[in-house]
Amino acid sequence: MNKITSSGANRRSVLRGMTALAAAPLAMPFLSNAAHAADAIKVGVISPLTGAWTVYGAAHMAGFELAVEEINAAGGVNGRPMEIIVGDSKTEPRIVVEQANRLIRQESVDFLAGTFSSAERNAAGPVVQQAGKLLLYPTFYEGQSQEQYPGVCNKNIFMCGPEPSQQVWPHVEYIVKNHGKKFFLIGSDYAWPRETNKMFKEKFAEYDGEVVGEVYIPFNTPEYESVLRDIRNSGAEVIFHSLTGSDTVNFRRQFHAAGMSKDITLWTVDDEEVVTSGLGAEVSAGTYVSFDYFMSIETPNNKVFLDKLFKKFGNETLMNTVGVGMYNAAHLLAQAVAAAGTTDTDKVRDALRGSSFAGAPQGSITLQAADHQAILPSYLMKVREGWTSVNDMFEQVQFFDKVIPAPARCDLPL
Amino acid sequence: MSSLVGVLIDATLITLILALAASGLAVVFGLIGVINMGHGAMLTLGAYFTWAATTAGLPFIAAVPVAALSVAVIGLILEHVLIRHFYSRPFETLLLTWGFFMVSTEVIKIVFGADFRSVANPLPGTLEFGGLQIPAYRALVAVLSLVILLTIGIIYKKTTFGLRVRALVQNQEVASLLGQDSAFLYKQVFVAGAFLSGLAGALISPMLSIDPYIGNVYLVRSFFAVTLGGLGRLVEGTILGSFVIGGSETIFALTTSQVFAQTIVFVLAVVLLRFFPRGLLAGRS
User: Fold this and answer.
1) What is the pLDDT of residues A92-145, one digit of tens each?
2) Domains of chain B
3) Which of A387, B76, B148, B174 has the fewest CB atoms within 10 Å around its CB?
4) Are the beta carbons of B259 and A226 separated by less than 8 Å?
5) What is the pLDDT of residue B223?
6) Nearest residue of B to residue A225 by CA position?
7) What is the pLDDT of residues A230-271, one digit of tens each?
């Protein structure tokens, strides 16, 4: 009898212990916040380090790492160093959700930066919305419309890269005037190419352009015979190209091998330094590319930026618009945290709104307060014949400074 | 008319290139039952070795055999260290070869970096054919694919070595009782498969982007092609399976979107497997 009572008491104390354990996670945020006052500001960086878009991961990470190194060398933010905690997206939206949750819940990061494709950002959208964390997104993207909420039109997401009204619209006139009005649109089968093409067609209609074909290619398609045949039969004068990853390289190599590149002009809104290097001079020569940043742009900031980049990662390091987006994201964030004097989401969001980063490699950039889009320059480049490196890869065709994006199609203000 | 001929030529090219990519798997999976999830990695290695060899100054024509042999050596090591202990346990080979894929992909990233690499097209230009333009190098690879597959067929059907392999495939125990060195035969077949995968990766490299995952584009397609054609039907099976998985897509794409065409192809493949669970040609042997 005695025995039973004592074991009952034991059970009760065990239960009590368990209740305390269960309550512990609830108490944790207070504990960790207190501890944080002296600790690092943790930023979770979600990057495609493995999987189909590994090729883009290096520049993506390098941009952020370089910025954080600069920030910490200058004494950190409000006396606290900034610390990166990496999450590999494996190029899969599903994994992005896992990583975002892990970074927020287990690593207790203060902010998130990164994700690469629009599909990845859209996957992270609901997570940051629920967790009340900010995400700084670096990539050129399709623009915001309320139907894609919470991947866009999300008050917790800031866009550091250009959208089509900046990346595409300024250059439609030039291409149509010089290369014809019959366009064939080819893109990968997901949100970014489809929405970008929608935006493109809006502007294209103003020039009486004719879309003679529009196809979307599933990821990891090795063969393009039937598409090339369709393009040839369509009478297209220009290909507007938004394939991504290895598909862009596979398509463009086969397009060139089929002897079509001499008759049809190609304008890509995806193929930055990394992809163009992969294509080689022969395949890429004579094609057009438009972005907010190229390694070869001659701004004073870019010179300083590249010097530091090469010093840290070696002279062969490739940079691109997305890596620079990450670099700017880290600095914008550090400035905002410094201005807000806290890592509190609402206060940092307020500080980010309307903030500018004067040290951006493109020249000073600004995040618009109302819709979280960045004011950025826009370059149209033509790939040189027989280029040998990123220094002589692109020839500037035209340039617009501080292009203001079309208002986001969101329920504003965010 | 010219568009019909065009479609047929396209379908033939795609079929033969996929058959080439699948040939290594047809040998390793089709004959000795190793569920080689590392097949894609072997293609990738073949492509990278070709890139490395051409970058080092070797002409493409010499780089191809160097790459194929290098992959064969890796296959030999993999077989000797791991695979040979697992021939009777196919599921374990799946895990082992998947592990091989992951390790080799990471090693590739360390050694070659994650950037895109490219091998210059050794045969630029196009062939004119009744108003149609066919990329010369693709046409060459398609022809080589046919030659390679026929060579495999002849070795398998007409040589003593082929006879031994067939005996091994039909009844391993009896073959061993009759004095066959089964272990050595398994090893030879596995290495031959690795060689073919490396060769395919090398030959395909000028057409594709070379990144650490290039071979995986062909992994699922190869498994479908080999399974659909029928295990052990090295030549006809591989070509027929490749036609259903690859070549037919270009025909479907005539009337539907590319996305839908790829979907139909896999639906078709699954339905066909339902009615021919041992492959389209299995009934005939």
Assistant:
1) 999 999 999 999 999 999 999 999 999 999 999 999 999 999 999 999 999 999
2) 4-282 (1.10.3470)
3) B174
4) no
5) 95
6) B10
7) 899 999 999 999 999 889 999 999 999 999 999 999 999 999
Distance CA B178, CA A289 (A): 67
Across the interface, whether the CB atoms of A223 and B246 are under 8 A apart is answered yes
Residues of A with Cβ-Cβ distance to B253 under 8 angstroms: 226-227, 230
Judge: B216–A220 Cβ closer than 8 Å, yes or no.
yes
Helix/strand/coil percent split, chain B, to 5? 75, 5, 20
Give the model's pLDDT for residue A104: 96
Cα torsion angle, B258, A261, A179, A381, sign: positive
Contact B137 A51 (CB under 8 A): no
A278 vs B109, B116, B250: nearest CB? B116
Q: A196: closest CA among A239, A252, A240?
A: A240
Residues A172, A204 contacting (CB under 8 angstroms): yes
Q: What is the ipTM of this complex?
A: 0.79
Interface-testing mutation among B209, B248, B250, with chain A (most A C-beta atoms within 10 A): B209
Instruction: Verify whether the Cβ–Cβ distance A274 to B116 is below 8 Å.
Output: yes
Assess contact for B21 and B218: CB atoms under 8 A.
yes
**pLDDT band at B283, cuts 50/70/90?**
low
The angle at the Cα of A236, spanning A231 to A241, to the nearest 5 degrees, equals 70
Judge: A278–B257 Cβ closer than 8 Å, yes or no.
no
- What does the block give as tokens for A159? 């866009």
Strands B132-135 and B126-129 turn out to be antiparallel
The partner residue sitting opposite A275, judged by closest CB among B105, B116, B257, is B116
Contact B140, B128 (CB under 8 A): no
Which residues of chain A lie closer than 8 angstroms to B11, CB-CB?
A: 225
Distance CA A196, CA A204 (A): 12
Q: Could you tell me the two tokens for A16?
A: 């009590």
Long-range contacts of A337-345, Cβ-Cβ distance < 8 Å, separation of 24 or more = A337/A41, A337/A77, A337/A78, A338/A77, A338/A78, A341/A78, A343/A36, A343/A41, A343/A110, A343/A111, A345/A132, A345/A133, A345/A134, A345/A156
Burial class, A57, CB count within 10 angstroms (exposed 0-12 / middle 13-18 / buried 19+): buried
Q: Residue B43: phi, psi to the nearest 5?
A: -60, -45
Do A213 and A235 contact (CB within 8 A), yes or no? Answer: no
